[in-house]
Design brief:
The protein has 387 residues and is of the alpha+beta class. It has 15 helices and 14 strands. The protein has a 5-stranded mixed beta sheet with strand order 2-3-9-6-4, with helices on one face. Strands 5-14-11 form a 3-stranded antiparallel beta sheet. A two-stranded antiparallel ribbon has the order 1-10. Bound molecules: protoporphyrin IX containing FE.
Amino acid sequence: MTADDAPGRTRWAPVLWPVERPGPPAFDRGDRAWVVSRFADIGAVLGSGAFFSPDASVEIRSVAARAGLEASALAWALDSLMPSQHGAPHRAARDAVTTLMPHVMVGWTRDRLNAVARRLVGDLQDGDAVDIVPGLVDALPNAVAADMLGLSLEDVVWVRKCSLETMSAWRRGVPLRTYGALERVAGDARSFLETSPRGTSRILMGASRDVLAGVEFTLLAAAVVTTSSTLGAALYALAQHPDLQRTLRGRPERISGFVEEVLRLAGSVRRLSRRVAGTAFEVGGVVIPADASVILDIERAGRDPAVYDEPDALDLERNAPPTLAFGGGDHPCMGPRLARLEMAAAIAELLSQFELGVADEPSFAGSRDVRCFKALRVRLRRHSYPS
Ligand code: HEM
């Protein structure tokens, strides 16, 4: 028996990726923003009401105008993403999602999620290098989103790709040569979302077609990519630790603690979307001037030693404060319950049918702000342990 097999073990160290320790708020010249990374400092910023999301398209519009380029669809796409909104458009979008989510949750019960996960896992084949992204990591959130928005699976995959591509225009200094391509992608997504009537229109009858299109565009990134990526991280952690698989197989009630730890260690949103200080604000002994941009690095906050004992370790029984993985302030995530249920269903079903091991290092799309798996190749062996 190795140390990892010790009975009753609940802590594994270290898992997933190394992350830089948080520090006091500091100005980052590359990002042209103050980066806030300690857990308490991020809590203070989110709870202060002193910060707001700036108009996302201002920069793109002015750069495009100076260069004589068209960027109106791109500007629509950026302004439609809820984390970049504020004021009345943001309230209208949140109202629409608040109306939609109870319908989604009634349809997607734990039993139904388990059944869909069981079918997807049942279709996986044994192998030494099975890319588990298309068959499970992407497939479950895609299926839920298709049902939630009344879209086909192909449309979900396509709009989700458009949404990720246009989000790349959010970062500063996008090369001018990419504007044309991004404008076409955003334009295609916009006309598709604004013209085809779907299930959401029946539930959200009071919302305008424009608000609906923005909400759907947001959800295809915010609900699908995030859940897929965090699930990918969970499966990668499991593949690294056969003993963790044994523990969770024997004690499935611990899967929820595992999901919380994966959210903390490797939630898909690494840094929240930019906020701007409405007034000068002191945090962590540093004064952030009015009008300055702020980036909240929740990934580093998740490893804050002032809050988490042995922060790099995965501890199934950690008694931690509420996670920052779902953001907060004016833009808290609107789907944590659904996300947790999806992840738990996929993990439980995979463990009940397979043993997994690492075949390759995963490959990623995404950015410094959002992690997104391109491929996650694992060794899969069907087992016959009783479930
Ligand atoms: C593990 C999965 C998920 C993670 C880690 C996650 C994380 C987040 C984070 C950090 C934000 C705030 C972004 C910011 O302030 O920049 C956010 C926003 C949002 N999330 Fe999630 N999310 C997940 C799944 C979901 C699901 C399943 C749904 C809905 C079905 C959803 C709906 C939303 C919406 C609508 C927003 C925008 C809120 C606003 O701007 O007012 N998310 N999410």
